[in-house]
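FAQ
Q: What does a multi-component entry look like?
A: The components come first, one per line:
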Amino acid sequence: MKAYVFPVCMAGLLVLAGCASDPAPAEQLRLSEQVIAQARAVGAVGEVGELAMAESKLAQARSALADGENRQARLLAEQAELDARVAEAKLLDIKSQEQLDSLNQHIRRLRSQAGGAR
Amino acid sequence: MSALRYAALLGGLLGLAGCTGLQQDKDQALRAAQADFLAIRDDTYVLRSAPREVQRAAETLVHAQRFSGYWGGAEDAIHYAYLSRRYSEIALLQSRVERNQEQIARLERTIDHLQFALRESAPAFDEQRIDLAAEESNRGLLVTLDDVLFADGSFRLNRSANRILLRLARFLQFNPLRRVRVEGYADNRGDADDNLTLSRKRAQAVADMLIDLGVDPEQVERVGYGERFRVADNASGRGRARNRRVEIIFSDEQGAFSIPR
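Then the predicted structure of the entire assembly, as tokens:
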């Protein structure tokens, strides 16, 4: 009898372990936080929606972690990280475009001024 | 990704939606991720500037496809498809930023050349002195640009200002502690508020030109006085033309100005 009980218990434990085996994604949460801070440091935050998205997912990841739902926390934190990376790339794109526009304007002014100097 | 899709995705991740619904979401997510990846995969610009992101987009797409084949793997498939799309998007954006930066470097070289050409075209002058038609006023050293500088109602700088602005720019570059206050004025035709705006734009046009010629923006203040402080009678066209002017006040050697009028 005992010989049967043991494997059954083990199987039960393994199933439980399967659910609980997701480690707490502390590292991923830290990384996501860092990436969000980095994106925010690039500039005007209101311009891109992805940053708000990242922050909201990070908050949800934290509460999932607090509820012991490690897997859910990890998925949300991973998405938050990439949302923030998209936000950062978009901000850099906007900035470089603005810089281009101002340089082109600068050149137009210099050219028109040079035309008269000759 | 629209807010609706995002909500749908989260719904898929958090709750256990109906199985067929989840299946549909999964197929849709996979198709979208695949399409995004195909769009960047063969773009040499993207590959050059964001090889790591392209690689990640490929890896996560493979994960998504693998999970999609497992029973109960739909949630993970949707998740990895989402990550893959994000990587594709980042790769595309990064390549755009890099191309813009290359363009920026080219434009900056063009500006250097133009500034050089402009300076070369100006007659030689003693660089250490203010070789400008400056006059002493109760507001400090003053240069008036009123040589038919602006057309009626316009803030476009006439080219006749070139010579003096080039000298001014050169002077400021050799005397980095000195500063100038560029004051714009208008004649009294039209609305007073419009004239105030116009006078500000005139000051701005002159300040912009100085900065374009290589003057540190910190050295240039600007202010508009509208139709106030006329120097000639506004009754005649000639008088109005003189009133449409810019006055440039010099700071002392430490960068301090007289009190603004």
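Q: Is there any commentary attached?
A: Sometimes. For this entry: Helices of chain A lie at 2-20, 26-42, 49-66, 70-117.
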